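Problem 12. The chain below contains 127 residues. Write out its predicted structure in C-alpha cell notation.
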Amino acid sequence: QLQLVESGGGLVQPGGSLRLSCAASGFTLDYYTIGWFRQAPGKEREGLSCISASDGTTSYADSVKGRFTISRDNAKNTVYLQIDRLKSEDTAVYYCAKVDLCVFVGDNYYYTRADYWGQGTQVTVSS
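Solution.
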C-alpha cells in the first residue's frame, strides 16, 4: 500500500525551529516529486515547497524562501521540511503529497495532480 506519513509537528515558540518528516511506504520517494503544503484554520491550502524526482531540484513559495528548506534522505525514504524562525502565522496542519510538477511562480504552486496525501502534522507557534 502506497502511503505518506507526516510527523514532527508540535508546539513551538516564535523564533524556534522544527523539522517535519514525510516518510513513504510502498514506493521509493526519490522516483517521485514530493510537495509540502499547509492549511491554516479558515484558510485555503497553500503550497510551500517541492523537490523533484529527477535531480532533486527544489523550489519554494516566495513567502517561505529563506526560512523553509526541503530535503530528501533516500536511505530513509523520507522527505524533510526544515522550518526556521517560526512565526505565529506558520500555525497550520502541514501535509506532504506526491505531485506531478515542481514549479512555483511567486507564491503559486503550479501542479496538475497531487495524490497519496498524508494525514498531516499540526504545527502550532505560540508563546
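Discussion. The mean pLDDT is 95. Students who got a different answer should revisit the alignment rule from Section 12.3.
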